[in-house]
Amino acid sequence: LRGIRPHAQALVSISLSDMPSLTDLCVSEFFASYKASALPRIDFSHNPELSRKSLTALLEHSGSALIHLNINGWKATSNQELMAIPEYASELVCIDFGFCREVDDFVIKALLDGCSKLTEIKCFGCNRVTVNCPRKVSPLICHSAVLVNVPTWCSLESSFVASNLIRPRETDYVNEVHLFHPALSFTYPFKYLKKH
């Protein structure tokens, strides 16, 4: 990182994943002293020593331009720092914070509320995320849809049915609803369906 500071002042992304020798203090000092413009893409995944100081420093430096953030494996990052992500990075499109143990439903909700351009959240290994985790679907982006394995006695409780964008197909059994878009794919569990 000491070599990057003076010799790479026009970076648009930085990817230093799988480097276990990186420390929280080292990365936080890098972002605190890096005078170049904000980085839109940052990947420091699988660096288990990185945590609160690194996240705070990178958000303060690059949050305003950040569209892609990968902090997968930052196990010790606190809920408070994770909740601050949307405050700094409202333009975020994709985030991977798998195995960040403090990610919960409230962190997901804060991201969905604070990052209107968000299309992808990866939270594999986040055991505090429950089935009650909020989901976000905009009718403007779901221009086509297919109901999979939904019997005729089921209907969706959503504006999609009211606007005739979704019509049940006559099939026998039941499990989930997939909404397809070229850039996005959402899966709704069966709890969103109900009998007439």
Description:
With 196 residues, this protein is α/β, with parallel strands linked by helices. Helices cover 24% and strands 18% of the residues. The chain has seven helices and ten strands. The chain has a five-stranded parallel β-sheet, with no helix packed on it. A three-stranded antiparallel β-sheet has the order 6-8-9, with no helix packed on it. The chain has a two-stranded antiparallel ribbon with strand order 7-10. Strand 4, helix 6 and strand 5 form a beta-alpha-beta unit. Helix 2 (24-33) packs parallel to helix 3 (52-62). It starts with a helix and ends with a strand. Residues 138-196 have low confidence and may be disordered.
Strand arrangement within the widest β-sheet reads: 1-2-3-4-5
Compute the separation of the termini in Å. Answer: 61 Å
Total DSSP helices: 7
Radius of gyration: 20 Å
Report the count of strand segments. Answer: 10
Helix- and strand-based class? alpha/beta
Q: What percent of the residues sit in helical stretches (DSSP H or I)?
A: 10-25%
Shape: globular
Residue stretches low in confidence (pLDDT < 50, at least 5 long) are: 138-196
Largest sheet: 5 strands, parallel
Proportion of β residues?
15-25%
- SSE string, helices as H and strands as E: HEHEHEHHEHEEEHEEE
Round the mean pLDDT to the nearest integer and report it: 76
